[in-house]
Amino acid sequence: MSRLSAGKTLLLLGVLVVVIMVGLHFSADDTDELTPFESTTRDVLSPVQRLVTVVGGKISDVVTFPARLYKVSEHNRQLEQQVVELQGKLSSYNEIRSENIRLKEQLEFKTSLADQMNTEAAEVIGRAADNWFGSAIINKGSASGIRRDMAVITPAGLVGRVTNVSDHTAEVLLITDPRSGVGCLVQENRAPGIVEGVSGGRGVVNMMHIPSDLAPKKGNRIVTSGFGSVFPKGIPVGTVRETRREESGLFKMAVLETFVDFNRLEEVLVVTSTNPDSAT
């Protein structure tokens, strides 16, 4: 060991001894008065004591930092989990709220039609991916009184008619399918015509065979005519978007915007019976 290192060691030991002796003296003395030596020693050692306190605090911070960092990380993870759970609950609440609004509208509509027709509420449980605007499957069948060729509606308007039935399900041919044909009237001028679906029309329907002298105007309302035994009279179908002449040149045709949003068809009403005397 070099002389310099030995000297530093002795100096540190000396300081340690002095500190210990002073500490013992302070702890052993019960008097309130400090001796000159005690006062001088305290004044001399106060910077060292302050330095030791600061360094000790920093060391404590360094030692405890990993634990505090882990606690913060764990707390953040818990908060993130709570956010995910709250977002899920909010989504469920919004879905339930939307469903309640739709069902309330459906109930009010059903009540308003009580003197005109009887209906059975049903949910849409299936749509064909390759023919989205062609047909839909509902969760009510013959066990609920559903029969073939019953009209299907919503509070917004006409949806289609039942084409086949099982005990607990039924298939509905939508008015947007090219195979569908519905006798209708222009509400404003009573012009007759047939509403047909358009192949690949993404929900578009046309009113065909309108007399040329009774061509409807843009915005005119189209309702069912009640001709035949399937669709009751006066059910809203849509509004006229544009009118043009048919290829034969003998009649006019109108492109309609349906009242029912067939992209978001979730609940429907099946018309199980009607009172013709109350129909409008």
Automatic annotation (TrEMBL):
NCBIfam families linked to this entry: mreC (TIGR00219)
Q: Which domain of life is it from?
A: Bacteria
User: Which family, according to UniProt?
Assistant: Belongs to the MreC family.
tRNA processing as UniProt keyword: no
Q: Which GO terms describe its cellular component?
A: plasma membrane
The identity of this protein, by name, is Cell shape-determining protein MreC
The UniProt record lists the Rod shape-determining protein MreC beta-barrel core domain at 124-271
Q: What does this protein do?
A: Involved in formation and maintenance of cell shape.
UniProt keywords, alphabetically: Cell shape
Per the record, the GO terms for biological process are: regulation of cell shape
Gene3D superfamilies attached here? Rod shape-determining protein MreC, domain 1, Rod shape-determining protein MreC, domain 2
